[in-house]
User: What shape does this take?
Amino acid sequence: MGEHCILCAKEAAARGYSNRVIEGALLHDASECYMSDVPRPLKQFMTVYKEQENHLLDVLYTKFLGSPLDEQEEKLIKEIDDAVLWYDMKYLLGEDSEGDKPETCMVPDYTVRAFKDVEQEYLEIFEKYKVL
Assistant: This one.
């Protein structure tokens, strides 16, 4: 999750998005720390889970961004998440992803790193683009 969120934040920065969108991209999967990660194909059938997850994300965004994401910010982050997920599926899991290869402003790096290094980079990005 940490690497994926780092890649999403880097892509948001490479696209020239605001610090708020960059930090939102970094935090977009933060609910998984508390609720668990449920794959998208299953999550679509879990209405209550999705409602709770969205509520928790709103709480986290309010804590770190001052307010929940607006519709446009959510759209931008979703586009980035989908693009990075395409690369995750292909290069981490070796699975064919649906659709054409998405255009990104940076090339995802899937070099295996120690957890402490991933954590350090996550915190550095968080501090660099900190909104509050």
Notes: The chain has one domain: 2-128.
